[in-house]
Amino acid sequence: MSQLETLPAPLPAPPCPATPRRFPTAARLVRPALVLLPLVLIGVWALVDREAAYKGVARLAAADPWWLLAALLFTCLTWVAAACVRQGALPERLPPGLLVASQFAAGAANQVLPAGIGAHAVTLRFLQRRGIPLPRATASLALYSLVKPVARTLVLLVFLVAFPDVLRLGALVPDDRTLLLAAGGAVLALAATAVLLVAVRALRRPVLGFLRTALTDARELHTRPNRVLALWGGAAATPLLQGSVIATVGFSLGLPLSWTQVILALLVAGTAVGAVPAPGGIGPVDAALVFTMAAFGAPVGTATATVIGYRVLTVWLPLLPGALVLSALLHRKVL
Asked: What membrane topology does the UniProt entry give (predicted)?
């Protein structure tokens, strides 16, 4: 037998593995879902509030169109003011056009989730897409949330000093028991937060790091006059613009109150129940606003129609365009 015949036969080559069939990954499905989610939520919102929206549109159909045009102008300026406050709360410069568009989209998201969560989520995503680190972006949101109520309170105090004869406090002033309960709740919340930080070590380090970043950024921002003007000027202008929307809608419906009285009614109502976690402030703030305007001498029916018209212009009318802008920003990866 020859030497070639004694060699073992070569092993067959292993079969080539079949090319795995590619399935859509989760990342490919998440973005289309996020793009469509605002439209779905707006559809649900429209079904729930369709009766109120219909009544509001019917009321506005018979109103003075020139006053309504002024109200629409003030509504657009509220988004510009919000963008100014957002820019003022951050050292880095943001593109103005995209910033205003993000705030317009954030307004639509804010009507679905309570306590400003929707607007903060959209803004946080926008800041991260612009390369802002998460601690600094979160600190800017905290500063934004802190400055707005402080500026609102300062504007209220200025109005109280400048127009003392306009006020008819009466039933608007809470009694001693209500004030005591509010103060006790605030003290308990602060005490619970302190105990939680002391007891849970895992929370202590990120919270202290967040506070360090927030204080550093706040100190730096207040050394720059343009940021101070944007931050505090925009925060002070916001309630004035919102009150101007309510006033012009009320004037179109024959509301027998002055601009000063309407602004004071909004400031008092917002200060009293602004912390209630309702979507976009709808519900508690509306009821308090009607009650406050009635206390200033407006008929309850006209005050109610004014608030409904205000919500049509600031919530229902921009809702669909805001959702479309939100979807477009998600599609273009701005958010």
From this structure: Multi-pass membrane protein
